[in-house]
Specification:
By secondary structure, the chain is mainly α. It is about 75% helix and about 0% strand.
């Protein structure tokens, strides 16, 4: 199988034939949409003060920070399952060259996670927007940066999946890959807060670089959304 289109078709069949793919995407969708709606509902019950236009869009995407756990699991399993089940031998017999084989997997994984992630972010925004609007936090897709952060949510999730996939191709162990990724995304930022201010490590951590594209404003000293995402 030398045609890249055939490789993509084969990998698309593979990823759809694994039950864990569906479970991880469902968890991603539920967390992204559900937590966005939950945050909006809690704020509507508690009451709130007027906020800047567009902050509602950022709040509606809070679920992506937790949905990324499902993306990490999916990104790891897409490649490590090949080794744990022994399917890698069959796969490399069909596609002898590793670069086309890994590239095909990566393209399919990226496209799938981006589409599901972007749709989930868009729905989270649509559901939360009227609730926030009633609390003095109006937002519109036409507002500067709003569409960027919604699509950016999908990009952040998709690139995180690819990052995990690449690590999985190196380590070939599901548990190890997931542990390292979750450590980078959730533990490292906490540790960075206790480091001296003279060591600006925090702004270069994966979570800051990736999630920056989902921010309407750039914090002082932080990289711009696209610059940070490019490094990510």
């Amino acid at each position: 199988m030398n045609n890249f289109a055939d490789i993509l078709a084969s990998e698309w069949v593979k990823i759809r034939s694994v039950r864990s793919t569906y479970w991880n995407l469902i968890i991603l969708f539920v967390l992204t949409v559900g937590l966005g709606a939950l945050i909006a509902s809690v704020m509507s019950v508690q009451g709130g003060e007027d906020g800047p236009s567009g902050s509602a869009a950022e709040l509606s995407l809070v679920g992506t920070y937790f949905g990324v756990v499902a993306v990490v699991a999916l990104g790891a399993l897409v490649i490590t399952a090949e080794y744990s089940t022994g399917m890698i031998r069959t796969s490399l017999t069909t596609v002898p060259r590793r670069i086309p084989f890994l590239s095909g997997k990566a393209v399919v994984l990226f496209a799938l996670v981006f589409v599901i992630g972007a749709v989930a972010c868009f729905l989270a925004y649509l559901i939360s927007r009227p609730i926030f609007a009633n609390k003095g936090l109006p937002s519109s897709l036409g507002d500067p940066g709003v569409l960027r952060i919604i699509l950016g949510g999908g990009l952040y999730l998709a690139v995180t999946a690819i990052f995990t996939f690449a690590l999985g191709a190196i380590l070939r162990q599901t548990a190890g890959v997931i542990t390292i990724m979750l450590g980078l995304l959730f533990v490292a930022p906490v540790i960075a807060q206790f480091l001296p201010a003279s060591l600006p490590i925090g702004k270069y951590l994966p979570d800051r670089l990736g999630q920056g594209i989902m921010a309407l404003t750039t914090a002082e000293g932080a990289l711009s959304p696209w610059a940070g995402f490019f490094l990510y």
